[in-house]
Sequence to fold (461 residues):
Amino acid sequence: MLGVVAIVLVAFALRGPSAATASDTGPQLATPLWSTRRIPQTIVYDVGTQQLQAGLDQSVQGLDACFVVSAPSGLVASHQADAPHIPASTQKLFTATAALEALGPEFHYETRAVAPAAPKNGAVQHLWLVGAGDPGITTAEAAARLAAAPLTKGDKVTSLETLADAIVHAGVRSIPGGIDGDDSHYDTQRYLPVWPASYRADREIGPLGALTVNDGFTGPDGSGPAAGSPAVNAATQLARLLEARGVDVGPVGQGNAPKGATTVATLESPPLTDIIAGFLASSDNLTGELLTRELATHAGKVGTTANGLAEIRSTLTKLALPTAGLHMVDGSGLSRDNRAPCSLELATLELMSKPRFAWIRKGMSVAGEHGTLANSLRGTPLQGKLVAKTGSLNGVSGLAGFVDVKVPLEFSLLLNGSFAESTGVGKREQMAQVIAQYPDAPTADVLVPAPVAPGSAATGP
Fold:
């Protein structure tokens, strides 16, 4: 590029003055032939690219890391872009993308309350609560707790009270045989063996199942321990709400609804777009795992994690994403056995320019304002300008998304090493600020003073 510029400049220098120039008797402003003022702005951007690469390279010294940064002009920084790394919760981008593609933005879960026959004289002999995989069924008490927390504020839920009201509206005043929870829509593996036992005690994720209320945790507001059976817990919560509405309810338990049962009432979830927004913003692990199993059943397979992961990979491949380095063992990113390259994350972000996938960007956290980044980077130029998916484990920190401070950028970075989770968060925030400075280079008019009239004396220091 510099060679071409030099040839053009030499040609101009050798060309004689035009008639207009020759007839002009006034003093002319002269720019020296080899002045950097003649350098195109693209060369200035090259300086910014070099500084960005150097700054990010310095940030990852001593770490096993990858990063990629893309500007409208193309790739501007890269390090081990295709090398698989532990992605933590940035992996949720793949689950969300596959769900939107396979299920569609308007997809809804539908939970049903069924009985052997329609209510008669205010009674149904027995009621089954049949789960469809909705991860957001929540009691009013639990919904209030979620709304009060910065992380989950704004998450859309499916109100269990709505179903209780619908059952009463259908004329049910007595259920002598009680309520059974039916979670046969998916398999009944509650926790994956690749997860450490501490995840249960730390409430990283509740028990998996096609019928869960309050994320599978007990108590009216879901603040209790994880339920041994999420289906029984769901039946218990529904019975409590019905009794509060004057319905006599027998014992609760777990069992599959009989074929041909009559639907008494249904409970529809918010659309998938709203579910995806909460899933990404608050990084909800249960939603990731249940979406994975729903992808399996949607494809006509048994609702297992393994079948769902196969569907995720197949869907990403159909979308022409570079999946060569992808290895998923869960849908949430909780496992340290997951692997993904930064190049795949960047390619997934690029899909979000299409309307079908724009919902993913809309659902991401926003620095200093919303989701997992709500308390991060406040008072910096990145507040409100960084939209990204975070990922954090001990020794793992990831950030993938969009920055728009000087120019719009897309990026992915994954840091693996021996560091505390909080240290990793600080490191990725520091790298995000380096990225936001691009192009950190002076413009051509700053590099060289403006031309002066020939013969005039220079002033100033």
